[in-house]
């Protein structure tokens, strides 16, 4: 009888140890993730000069970090390409061409992130984060700089919108695309 109580006692201790080991591992993992997030916030703040912790958190949440920061400039192009809920091959090629023009190589984190956005339609949070970024950035620029940036973003975004629209695929912008162009315009006005 003593033997079986001892066996049960050992088994109980073993189960307790296993339980607490798993709890400890989960806590360690959570601490590592929090530490990585804090490092990511500090890195992104250092690279961008942005102190707004909410915006930095949003950027990290949508996949923008130190290595993929340049992909941020392509978010309006991705948004307009998905405006009609279908991304066709011409729009995809146009966005990838814009990435090459921005100097985004195929082996970079920005290119991998862009491919993810072109493979699966991103959540609205991505575009909302870009608009927030524009508002924060624009508040630090002169009016002339904001206008140049606005003009450049709208020019590049319209070029994507015009890749598949209109008569025989020439030059027209759909209602959904125009709505996105309007949102981009408004992001620079706030």
Write the layout of secondary structure elements.
Elements (H helix, E strand, L loop, with lengths): L1 H47 L4 H9 L13 H7 L7 H13 L7 H11 L4 H15 L4 H19 L13 H15 L1
Helix pairs in contact: 1-2, 3-7, 3-8, 4-7, 6-8, 7-8
Index terms:
single chain; 190 residues; mainly alpha; 2 domains; 72% helix; 0% strand
What does this structure look like?
By secondary structure, the protein is mainly alpha-helical. It folds into two domains: 1-49; 52-189, no CATH class. The protein is 72% helix and 0% strand. It contains eight helices and no strands. The protein has helices spanning 2-48, 53-61, 75-81, 89-101, 109-119, 124-138, 143-161, 175-189. It starts with a helix and ends with a helix.
What is the compact description of this entry?
The protein has 190 residues and is mostly helical. 72% of the residues lie in helices and 0% in strands.
Structurally, the number of domains stands at: 2
In sequence order, what are the helices and strands, one letter per element? Answer: HHHHHHHH
User: What integer is the average pLDDT?
Assistant: 83
Tally the helices: 8
Rg on CA atoms, Å:
24 Å
Query: Which segments are poorly predicted (pLDDT under 50) over 5 or more consecutive residues?
Result: none
Summarize the biggest pleated sheet. Answer: none
Structural class: mainly alpha
Tell how many strands the DSSP assignment holds: 0
Anisotropy-based shape: elongated
What is the straight-line distance between the termini? Answer: 79 Å
Please report which band the strand proportion falls in: under 5%, 5-15%, 15-25%, 25-35%, 35-45% or over 45%: under 5%
């Amino acid at each position: 009888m003593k033997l079986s109580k001892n066996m049960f006692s050992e088994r109980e201790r073993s189960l307790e140890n296993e339980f607490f080991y798993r709890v400890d591992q989960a806590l360690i993992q959570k601490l590592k993730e929090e530490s990585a997030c804090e490092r990511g916030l500090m890195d992104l703040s250092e690279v961008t000069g942005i102190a707004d912790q909410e915006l930095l958190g949003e950027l990290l949440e949508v996949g923008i970090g130190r290595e993929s920061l340049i992909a941020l400039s392509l978010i309006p192009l991705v948004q307009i390409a998905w405006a009609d809920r279908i991304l066709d091959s011409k729009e995809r090629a146009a966005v990838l061409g814009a990435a090459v023009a921005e100097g985004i190589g195929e082996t970079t984190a920005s290119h991998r992130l862009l491919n993810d956005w072109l493979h699966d339609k991103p959540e609205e949070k991505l575009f909302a984060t870009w608009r927030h970024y524009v508002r924060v950035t624009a508040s630090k620029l002169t009016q002339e700089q904001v206008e140049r940036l606005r003009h450049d973003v709208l020019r590049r975004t319209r070029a994507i919108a015009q890749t598949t629209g209109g008569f025989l695929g020439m030059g027209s912008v759909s209602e959904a695309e125009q709505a996105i162009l309007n949102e981009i315009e408004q992001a620079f006005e706030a």
